[in-house]
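Backbone-to-sequence.
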């Protein structure tokens, strides 16, 4: 009985080593260039053993980024309800920072290193979702008006800024917070100025 429990713990430990190794290679080389052989070697297992845990590299990538994508998608789509008070852009950014601090490497891979995987369009999907979210916020929509390109540009700038900040900051949480606040201020200051002028 205890032997079966020990084997299960060892299996989960091996799976975790494979995931950690894949984060290392995919974050440096990208999904397309990361090799299962290198991932296995760094994890201390055979390539065949990697395939016992993950059917293919896509399944490995899904294990890394799908939970993070679900959280991000939930934040953008489901955190807004017309019945409730609107959640402001800075509140969304604060929640996004929370996701970043809990899943830094996985989020970086999802938004910056997923080319060639089924998640390669995650960044563009996030831009679309943020654009739609911005359009649904009455205060922002009132300021911007009907100009669809402005919503798209603002959403793209938010996502591109987040991605670049992640590249710049790495593990420096203080720098991430500082740069995020500055960029959010810059992106929203003109909206606030326009609201004051109107």
């Amino acid at each position: 009985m205890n032997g079966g429990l020990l084997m299960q713990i060892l299996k989960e430990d091996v799976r975790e080593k494979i995931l950690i190794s894949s984060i290392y290679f995919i974050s440096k080389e990208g999904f397309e260039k990361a090799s299962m052989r290198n991932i296995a070697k760094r994890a201390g297992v055979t390539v065949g053993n990697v395939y016992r845990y993950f059917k293919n590299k896509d399944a490995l990538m899904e294990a890394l980024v799908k939970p993070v994508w679900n959280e991000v998608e939930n934040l953008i789509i489901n955190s807004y309800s017309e019945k409730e008070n609107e959640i402001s852009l800075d509140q969304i950014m604060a929640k996004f920072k929370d996701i970043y601090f809990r899943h830094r490497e996985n989020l970086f891979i999802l938004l910056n290193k997923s080319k060639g995987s089924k998640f390669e369009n995650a960044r563009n999907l996030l831009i679309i979702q943020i654009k739609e979210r911005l359009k649904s916020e009455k205060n922002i929509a009132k300021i911007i008006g009907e100009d669809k390109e402005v919503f798209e540009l603002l959403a793209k700038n938010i996502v591109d800024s987040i991605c670049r900040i992640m590249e710049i900051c790495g593990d420096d949480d203080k720098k991430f917070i500082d740069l995020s606040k500055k960029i959010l201020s810059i992106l929203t200051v003109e909206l606030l100025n326009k609201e004051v002028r109107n």
